[in-house]
Amino acid sequence: MVFTVALLVVSEVFPEKDQALAGAVFNTVGQFGQSLGLAIIGVISNAVTQAAEKDGSVSYGSAMALMKGYRAAF
Hints:
Layout: H1 2-13, H2 19-54, H3 63-73
Helix pairs in contact: 1-2, 2-3
């Protein structure tokens, strides 16, 4: 919902001839940021999960190992 409202605000601020361009740029930047953020979160989660499995605090492939990674990424 926030993304949609922000897109409308950005489009409304620009003149009518540039509204489509402003909306497209905003959407592109938002998609790029979202994909970059998800990639970084995935790397963090995987690294913490593997570290927990290597130090022996949880068993390999267990739900607890995954939860440690998810919590760290969150």
